[in-house]
């Protein structure tokens, strides 16, 4: 829900802006990016780098992102790092934006990019105070208003409270591809492998997929057929897959009945299955577990997670506001065999992964493609390959 006026970043920076939370607290600052008004769920990201990947991550659809790092924009924007074809955040909140980008890969400034894509933002905000408020009160609806003449406080608060909430939001079809496409496998020489000749074929259900994810699979000799969120079980098996992947994405997993049904169809056939983020929540629901909304979620590239199958601790990239409600202390019986929690967040004991003991299926709540971020979890793509090799053998 954004209305904006495009212009130039230079011409909008001095205009007044105000951020209004649904509990009535407000923060004043200056316009950053497009001028106008926008609404969404206020969340904070703790990443020190990677703002371009954050902005273009479809999982941030309908969210206003508060950056906890104080200085944003110093590396500008390039055309190689976006995770999708557009910026998905509803709004952007920074403390101290860079006046001039300084990086050899930069082709334009961040605020110019925000203006060009109509993304309303605000700068000069005490983001430490805002982040503490969200940690104490929880993620909530928010509005950003900027321009020469702002509405009165009561009008702004009323507009924020009229905005839709994230609970109950079904958003994956809004960000997913409308048409199927293929990401070819990458050979040892770095060239694309001809379609149909790769070592493995994976059907990837796009619920808000990031561009780096199929690339990580392609690096491992996998030909990836990316399918719309509306794909059926028949669509999945029409590509004759060796494995099936369910991607990250926005919204409330409690609304995702169609992807859950498709995943159950895959589990019935015992095809190797891998899910990340939203895909982890879909697997949880497919196995009969519930999901719930976290108070303020996990967003950033520095979250500690333990792989309980190895005991190793990984520094991981996260972006989720919902989690799976599964028991940490026992193996659970499900319609598809025994399941257990494979990964757990060391900050708050939130479920960060699931795997089945009686068939080749697993998932994690975080982002092993890690763009931008740590690569501690890259082994998960190798684990997926091992499952497909085992099934073929």
Number of strand segments: 21
Shape: globular
Number of helices: 11
Q: What fraction of the residues are assigned to beta strands by DSSP?
A: 25-35%
Q: Helical residue percent?
A: 10-25%
Helix/strand/pairing category: alpha/beta
Radius of gyration: 21 Å
User: Low-confidence segments, ≥5 residues, pLDDT <50?
Assistant: none
Arithmetic mean pLDDT: 95
Q: Main β-sheet: number of strands, strand sense, barrel status?
A: 11 strands, mixed
> What is the straight-line distance between the termini?
51 Å
Please tag this protein with its features:
seven-stranded mixed barrel, 21 strands, eleven-stranded mixed beta sheet, 393 residues, single chain, 23% helix, alpha/beta
